[in-house]
Every structure is written in C-alpha cells, then in structure tokens.
Amino acid sequence: MGTSHVHSDRGEPAELCDGHAHEHSHHDHHHRDASKKALGFVFFLSLAFLIVEFVGGLLTNSLALLADAGHMLTDVAALAMSFAAMWIASRPPTLKRSFGYYRMEILAALLNGSVLILVSGGILWETVQRLHHPPHVAALPMVGVASAGLASNLLGAWILARSGRDNINVQGALIHVMSDALGSLGAIVAGLLMSYFGWYLADPIISALVAVLVLKSAWGLVTNSVDILLLSAPIHIDPAEVVHAIEGVDGVIASHDLHIWTVTSGMISLTCHIVVAELSRSMQVLETLRSRLHDGFGIEHATLQVESADFATCRKLHW
C-alpha cells in the first residue's frame, strides 16, 4: 500500500507508511519503462509502414489506403508525443509541482483523441465527395499493401497492449494503432469487393464505417481524459461506496469533505476528514481505513484528517 497521512484536530500531523510504498513505486517505474520501450519500437514500425502505405495509396488511387496512411501519420505523431509525455512524466516532483509531471500523459492522451476525431471527420468528408463520383481503384495492389499494413498494425497493437494497457497515454496510442488495423482490414475488404464485383463504392463506404468506429473510440478517450483533468472520481469507483466503507470502520462516527481523483493512470488519490469516537485510537482506525481503501478500491495514496466529535461539532457551528 502507499502512504496515508493523518492529522489530529490540534493540527499535529502524523504519517504512517510501510515498505509497500517503495515496492509500488518500483513496480510503477518498471511498467513505465516497458511502456516507453514498446512505444519506441512501435513508433519506428509505424513510421516505416507510413511511407509504404502512402505511396501505395497514391499509386492505386485508393481512399481506403490514403485514409489508413492518414491514420498512420497521426500514429507516428501520437507515438512520438506519447513517448515524450512519458519521458517528461518520469521527472521527479518538486515543491512547486508536488505531483510531478504525471498529467503530461493525460494531456497527450487528450490531444491524441482530439486528433483522431479531426482525422475521422476529414475521412467522412472525403467519403461524401467520392460517393457521388467513385474513382477507379487498382484493387489487387491495394489488397497487397493493406495486408502488409494489417500485419504491421496488429504487431504494434499486441506490443502496446502487453506493455501498458492500464496507462491512458498508451491506450491513446493503442487506439491509433487499432484504428489503423481496422483501416487496413477495411481496405482489404474493399479491394476484394472491387476486384471481384467491380463495386467501386465499396472504397468510400468502408472508409466511412472505419472512420465512425475510430470516432467512437476517440470520443471515449477524450471524455476519459477530460474527466481526469476535471478531477472527477474514477469511473470504476462509487464515492457513496467509499463513504459507506469509511463509516463502517469501528471507531469512525462520520466522514466529510471527501475527494477522490486520478492523478494519472493507475494513481488514485483521496482526501477525507474522519470523525472518530476516541482520538487515542486514531492510529488503529487509520490502519484499518488504509487497508479498506487499498483492498476495496485500489486507492494507494490517502490523506485523512482525524477529528474528535467535539471538534467537528464546533467547526460546523463556527462555519
């Protein structure tokens, strides 16, 4: 477990910590290292195939391939940005920035999602133009390029999913790569339909379907990032259940001023005022609370201010 803090009603802080804090920090550092390596590898993989797919799209006159190349371009930028954000986030905290630079990962995820929304909108616009005048497309070469792209994207997605699926910054990069995999799959289907049936409307129609799927994922990424930046309670934690768990501890009379928020992926913080029956049992109550918050909700960092019933009543009357 992480570190919990307790403050008495006299304003005297006391801190309880254990070896789990160091263990958690080491564990977190290991995962971030793995995520950075994965992002670097997938960046170069995407950059190499971006060139192949863009040239292939121009030669075959395929919107599906060019749309996928557009996604690849945002992938390369997104992966570079995600890598830079993880590097900045690894810098140590300062007195001014006590939480460090972890929020850089959230900003990168927000920007990634926003770019994906813009790219999807551009593809949908181009689709409308092509529906009226579907151009001739070199279908079989398009299938060959798209098949290679699908293999490249699936490899990149597998690497990212293994390295940091719980990191919202990596999730943003993963959505980019998975959207390209969908684009490549769509281009394969469109190429086969055009090759065997001469149905050239397949190219813009399938491109539009892929764009809509990407738009849905991107919107989820953006809203999740905004929730974190607005200090909303994590989506998987019900604050009412946290209050019930806190007030269910023996010795706790009431609780108030509860705040739960996500600092960055996998790092949840909580602050709360706890009214106890006996101040002499504060440390025992705190230990129980720490265990409940960690085991029940995955909250590693809790700052708890302990107050006596008399102090809480006086405070309420005064305010």
What this model shows, in words?
The protein has 319 residues and is of the alpha/beta class. It folds into 2 domains: 28-229, Up-down Bundle (Alpha-lytic protease prodomain-like); 234-318, Alpha-Beta Plaits, CATH 3.30.70. The protein is built from 9 helices and 5 strands. The protein has helices spanning 20-60, 63-89, 103-132, 139-164, 168-197, 202-229, 239-247, 282-297, 309-318, and strands at 4-7, 13-16, 252-264, 267-276, 301-308. The chain has a 5-stranded mixed sheet. Helix 2 (63-89) packs antiparallel against helix 3. Residues 1-27 have low confidence and may be disordered.
In brief:
68% of the residues lie in helices and 12% in strands. The chain is an alpha/beta fold and 319 residues long.
Keywords, separated by commas or semicolons:
5-stranded mixed β-sheet; Alpha-lytic protease prodomain-like; 68% helix; 319 residues; Alpha-Beta Plaits; 2 domains; alpha/beta
What percentage of residues falls in helices of 4 or more residues? 55-70%
Strand arrangement across the biggest beta sheet: 2-1-5-4-3
Q: What is the number of helical segments per DSSP (H or I, 4+ residues)?
A: 9
Query: What would CATH call the homologous superfamily of the largest domain?
Result: Cation efflux protein transmembrane domain
**How many structural domains can be distinguished in the coordinates?**
2
Distance between the termini: 35 Å
CATH fold type of the largest domain: Alpha-lytic protease prodomain-like
Largest sheet: 5 strands, mixed
